[in-house]
Structures are given as C-alpha cells and as structure tokens.
Write a structure and sequence with these properties.
The chain has 193 residues and is α+β, with helices and mostly antiparallel strands. It contains nine helices and five strands. It folds into three domains: 61 residues, Nucleic acid-binding proteins (OB fold (Dihydrolipoamide Acetyltransferase, E2P), Beta Barrel), CATH 2.40.50.140; 57 residues, 5' to 3' exonuclease, C-terminal subdomain (DNA polymerase, domain 1), CATH 1.10.150; 51 residues.
C-alpha cells in the first residue's frame, strides 16, 4: 500500500499530477483544490497522502494534501456504489468540514448539487455516514451549514455559476460565520479573478 508520496512535480493536468520519486513517476488523481495548490507551488515538489485503488484492470493512486481529506475519501468509498472517482468529485466540491455538516444535518439538496449524485445516492451517503461521523465526534452544525448554503444561493442570484460561487466560498476563512460577510468576502475574491 502506498500511503504517502513526496517528490518532484513532473506534470500537472486538471485531473492528476505526476510526482517523480526515485526515478519513478507516480500518476496521482486529486481534487482541483489540491491541484491548484500544487501548480502554485514555487518549490516544484509536492507531498500527498494517498489511497491506492486496486481493481481487476487497473491500479490507481488518489492523493490529498490533508490527511483529513484522505480519511473522508476512504469513508465515502466504503459506501456501496461510490467509487474512487465519485468520492474524489464529492470531496472536490466543498471543504470536508462543509460536507460533513451537510451529511450531519441530512441536507440532501446540497449533496445532489454534485454532478452524478442523485437523490438515492445522497440519501445513502447521509444514512451510512451520519452515524460514523457522530461516532468520531463530529457534531451536526446545521446553523453554519445554512450560512454556507445561503451565501452560495446569494452569489448564484448575482449571476455567478455554482462552481464559481463554491470556489470563492472555499477561499473565505472559516472564522467568518455570517452570510452577508461571507458573500462580501467571496465577491472580493471573485473580483480579483
């Protein structure tokens, strides 16, 4: 099992990065956030926590900059019907804490906004992960989750796409907990792009 890879960045695309370690290039699929961080790295190196998925016809590595993302990814792929690529898409749509809050509060609408995730799959994710997250000490904070959803809807009503709005809200600090301030900060971020 390959659980962590640290090496020189050889190639980076919109879906994966290739890291050279000891003369071997490892192709590692990852989220857009991790790819952005890697591409903006001035060192030319990266370190990723990885999960190695072994199937009948392929062996793939999936990488994350934070170990918490890896743990959440592994919880997702333990759910029947959620493969590594789907789990990667889910993690790539919002910060892990936001996703945990959505699951903890049973917010199906938030999960079904993810491409390829229908209502039944979202229900399955909530049912299977809610208890696991509670057992790990994660509390359902529906108030904070509502602020995030309200901010997302406000940005969409101003003409931004869902992806643009989510990306901007990801960059807003977690310490900002009221909707109007989150929207203002996200608008500043969107204005710089």
């Amino acid at each position: 099992m390959i659980s962590r890879v640290s090496g020189k960045i050889i190639e980076s695309t919109d879906k994966y990065v290739v890291l050279e370690v000891g003369g071997i290039g490892y192709q590692i699929f990852t989220t857009t956030n991790t790819l952005s961080a890697i591409q903006s790295s001035t060192l030319g190196t990266a370190t990723l926590w990885t999960h190695m998925a072994v199937r009948e016809n392929s062996i793939e590595l999936f990488g994350f900059s934070e170990i918490e993302e890896l743990r959440f990814f592994e919880m997702l792929i333990d759910i029947s019907g959620i493969g590594p690529r789907s789990a990667l898409s889910i993690i790539g749509i919002a910060p892990v804490e936001t996703l945990k809050r959505a699951i903890g509060s049973g917010d199906l609408s938030y999960l079904t906004k993810i491409s390829g995730i229908g209502k039944k799959t979202a229900e399955k994710i909530v049912i299977e992960l809610r208890d696991k997250l509670s057992a790990l000490g994660h509390k359902s904070e529906s108030g904070e989750h509502k602020v995030e959803l309200d901010a997302l809807e406000a940005l969409k009503s101003l003409g931004y796409t869902q992806n643009e709005a989510r990306d901007a809200l990801k960059e807003v600090g977690a310490e900002i907990t009221d909707t109007s301030t989150r929207v203002k900060e996200a608008l500043k971020i969107l204005g710089r792009k």
